[in-house]
Structures are given as C-alpha cells and as structure tokens.
Design a protein that fits this description.
This protein is an alpha/beta fold. The protein has one domain: Spore Coat Polysaccharide Biosynthesis Protein SpsA, Chain A, CATH 3.90.550. It has 8 helices and 9 strands. A 7-stranded mixed β-sheet has the order 3-2-1-4-7-5-8, sandwiched between helices. A two-stranded parallel ribbon has the order 6-9. Helix 1 links the parallel strand 1 and strand 2. The chain starts with a strand and ends with a helix. The structure holds guanosine-5'-triphosphate and magnesium ion. Guanosine-5'-triphosphate (GTP) binds next to strand 1, strand 2 and helix 3.
C-alpha cells in the first residue's frame, strides 16, 4: 500500500493538535504517518507532539526555531514527508476546519490526478464560516483563477493531497513564507502542467484556539499572486 504522510503546520494549536492526531490515527490506515511542523509555539503545541511521538513512531515532530511562517513551515513539512519516503502527501490545517474524514477521498482521487484539493465551493461542499470570511475567500479565489490561469472552485483551499512525483516537481521552487503559500503551490502546479482535481469538503470555522489570519494576509496573498504571474 502507498505510504501516506499527513503534514500539519501549527502555531498555538495546543487545544486542537492531540484531538486531531487522534482523529487521523482513527482512520486506521497502517500506512499513514503524521508530520507536525511547529514554529516553537509559545503555547507548547510542539511539546504535546513530542510526547506523542515518543510512544507512536507514526507521529513526527518538526520543531522549527527559525524562520517562522505558515508557508515556510509547510514547505519544510513537505520536505520531511519526502525524506520519510511518502508516496502520497496530504496537507491540512490543525484547527479542524479540515476534517480528517476527507483524507481517504482526497487520496483515492489521485487515481485520476496529480494533486487533489478539498473544495469548500464545489457542489456537495460546504463553508460553515460567516458571510464576511466567505465573501473574502470567494473574491480571493476569483482573483487567483484569473491571474494564475486556472479554473478551480477553491484555489485557496489549504487542504490538499499530492502524489510524490508531483511534489518532487514543485517543492524546491516554493518560496512563499506565509499563508500565500497556497497561491505559490497553485502557480507551480500550473507551470508544471500538473493535473488538479477538486473534492467537495465540509469546512467549518475553528472552534478552539485563536485565528492568526489578518486582512493584511488577504492583501499579501493578492500581491503574491500578481508577482507569481509576472515572474513566470
Ligand atoms: N508552523 C506554523 N503554522 C502556522 C503559522 N500560522 C498559522 N499556522 C497554522 O496554519 C494553519 C492555518 O492557520 P489558521 O490560523 O487556521 O488560518 P485560517 O484558517 O486562514 O484562519 P482561521 O481558521 O480563521 O484562524 C493552522 O494549522 C495554523 O496553526 C505559522 O506561522 N507557523
Ligand atoms: Mg483555520
């Protein structure tokens, strides 16, 4: 069976991370492992993962102490998964917005694609957040589609699944330090002609822990998207 590695970037997710790891392991896939890429979170998220990893060899901690950032941690998580011999790499958030129950479907859909994306807006999917966040995401999605030349219902979704070969083609080219990593990945997929497929997901707002997302992140995402397009 292919080896699946689920990568999770974390910043202050002490209220979520153990629950999430338990849910992922409850999928009972013996070929599945987890890499948590934590930026030395002040709330001790990394200590929780370190403890779990001592008794469960399927759980790996990437304890980052320099270059904090959602994107940089995500890239390091991908590299670690490649090093560990992943055939398939999943990336997801730690706050249960991305529920682990979608992992099997994302993995199975790679039979017809190089990369699969969990979409909040494909028919059958659902975005349970408030109107303001939905409108911002939809606007940002439309912008990414036009500028990067893709046609996806949710190009900004951070719930994704990659074949090893696909990840091998893009990982060394990724540079975005922050949440703009989602657009960077789409740009590299497009440049490398990777086949993308979308799977509807139920997306819910975080219930525990605090948001790190600011309006500045949305602006920065748009600026990065333009820079990516014009540096092709
Ligand atoms: N390693 C690392 N992870 C981060 C950083 N910032 C955010 N994350 C993680 O990236 C994922 C997405 O971040 P969120 O804060 O949930 O961002 P969001 O989903 O856009 O916004 P909310 O859910 O409203 O908070 C979560 O697992 C965070 O813990 C960071 O600087 N470093
Ligand atoms: Mg979130």
């Amino acid at each position: 069976m292919p080896k699946i590695i689920v990568t999770i970037p974390t910043w202050n997710e002490s209220l979520n991370i153990k629950l999430l790891i338990d849910e992922i392991l409850a999928l009972k896939n013996k070929d599945l492992e987890i890499v948590v890429a934590d930026d030395n979170s002040p709330d001790g998220t990394w200590k929780i993962v370190e403890e779990i990893s001592k008794t469960n060899k399927k759980v790996h901690l990437l304890h980052r102490v320099t270059n904090k950032g959602r994107g940089l941690a995500g890239i390091d998580g991908f590299k670690k998964a490649m090093e560990l011999g992943a055939d398939i790499i999943v990336e997801m958030d730690a706050d249960f917005s991305h529920h682990p129950r979608h992992i099997p479907e994302l993995v199975n859909s790679l039979q017809n694609a190089d990369v699969s994306i969990g979409s909040r807006f494909k028919i059958g999917g659902y975005d349970k957040r408030g109107l303001k966040r939905r409108v911002l995401t939809k606007g940002s999605n439309a912008f990414a589609n036009i500028v990067l030349g893709v046609n996806l219902t949710d190009p900004n979704s951070g719930y994704r699944c990659y074949k090893r070969e696909a990840m091998g083609k893009i990982v060394d080219k990724l540079k975005a330090p922050g949440p703009d990593i989602v657009q960077d990945v789409i740009d590299k997929c497009k440049i490398n002609n990777l086949k993308l497929i979308e799977i509807p997901i139920d997306f819910q707002d975080r219930e525990r822990g605090e948001t790190t997302k600011t309006f500045k992140d949305f602006i920065n995402g748009a600026v990065t998207t333009l820079k990516l397009r014009f540096s092709r």
